UniProtKB/TrEMBL annotation:
Keywords: Signal. Gene3D superfamilies: Glycosidases. It comes from Algoriphagus chordae. It comes from the Bacteria. Residues 1-20 form the signal peptide. This is Cellulase (Glycosyl hydrolase family 5).
Length: 364
């Protein structure tokens, strides 16, 4: 039997192998068997069908990459000032993120993508003069970033959520001096998660590996080496489940498919819901694919009031779907989850549309 088909049982072994030194009080375990996710050894959305489509085993998510955002560049930090205090506050941002997590979960959100190097706080951008990285130039960890990460992961564990943690973001990877620093950053971040005893975390090596990365190890031809590095790190017989993503509409390459525990797709630029279904079908046809979960964890298309949209299309193809929203030109503070400072509540029409459809589909 191949490894990917027994990850559920491996995860069970991992949990039973806990020692007191590895945070045995953790409450949440995420695992995979074939193309289905389990949380605490039960299928997600167990028994749920929606419009004739099975939902159990999927992992609905939202792109919330700025949960531990900061800006170490004194020239650009003024861009993120809160309107009420006229200053940026990284701890406030994380605290407000954590305060809203139970609300997201109440609608059926079981996962969110948090990137350790964030994402563009403008939604999309060419240049990134801000410095948002939890790593030093040599790949050591910055304690203040990981203190904020711990708050988020502790709450996710308490709530029974399984976050997707991205390690790198293009435009910020050049904050690392060289390839050795990238290896150090991966090793240090993954080891930190393992040493804290988290069993509810999925890893995305980097956001959109085929988009503008400086270091070759983060590019499509070699990124599988980092996937394998993550898989090689263990504590008490435990390891983390891992993948990486590509830009919108791109089908993953064979090297990534063979190395990954699950597949991450992006729907940016895919305005026709039928193309979402085609992406899933094409991914299942990539050489080396065997049954494993397919997860959209970024898609900036909405139309949630329409019977056919990218979310419903993904469900019809038995793929998980992830909402990506940012504050567009001249919009107010309540819009978007990627634009900093972030309103982490459900206070815009787009956010309400997503969460209401999420609740309907998942039966929460």
């Amino acid at each position: 039997m191949k490894l990917k088909s027994v990850l559920f049982f491996v995860a069970l072994t991992f949990s039973l192998g806990f020692s007191a030194s590895s945070q045995s009080t953790r409450k949440t375990v995420v695992s995979i068997s074939a193309d289905k996710f389990y949380i605490n050894y039960e299928l997600t959305y167990s028994g749920r069908n929606w419009n004739g489509h099975s939902v159990e085993g999927l992992l609905m998510n939202s792109r919330m990459v700025q949960g531990m955002f900061d800006d170490l560049n004194p020239e650009t930090v003024k861009n993120w000032h809160y309107s009420d205090t006229k200053k940026w506050d990284a701890d406030r941002n994380t605290d407000e993120f954590v305060a809203n997590m139970p609300i997201w979960k109440s609608y059926g959100l079981l996962s969110f993508t948090l990137n350790l190097q964030g994402g563009s706080p403008f939604g999309y951008s060419q240049n990134q003069p801000w410095i948002n990285s939890p790593y030093t130039e040599t790949g050591e960890l910055r304690p203040d970033y990981f203190k904020r990460l711990e708050k988020i992961l502790d709450k996710a564990d308490e709530l029974g959520m399984a976050p997707i943690i991205g390690l790198f973001y293009f435009g910020q990877d050049d904050r690392l001096a060289d390839e050795n620093a990238v290896f150090n950053a991966v090793t240090n971040a993954v080891d930190w998660i393992l040493e804290k005893g988290y069993t509810n975390v999925l890893i995305e090596v980097n956001n959109e590996c085929n988009v503008n990365y400086e270091h070759e190890i983060l590019q499509p031809e070699r990124v599988h080496e980092l996937i394998e590095l993550v898989k090689s790190r263990e504590r008490d017989g435990r390891r983390l489940l891992v993948s990486t993503s590509y830009g919108g509409g791109t089908i993953p390459k064979e090297n990534v498919v063979r190395a990954s525990d699950f597949i991450l797709l992006h729907g940016n630029g895919v305005s026709d819901p039928d193309k979402i279904v085609e992406m899933v079908e094409e991914t299942r046809s990539v050489s080396g694919y065997e049954p494993m979960p397919i997860v959209f964890n970024e898609d900036d298309h909405f139309s949630f009031d329409q019977p056919k949209n990218n979310f419903t299309a993904a469900v019809s193809a038995y793929a998980s779907w992830g909402y990506f929203d940012y504050r567009m030109k001249d919009e107010g503070f309540e819009e978007g989850y990627q634009s900093v400072p972030v309103d982490w509540g459900i206070n815009s029409e787009r956010k309400k549309g997503f969460f209401e459809l999420l609740k309907e589909i998942t039966g929460y």
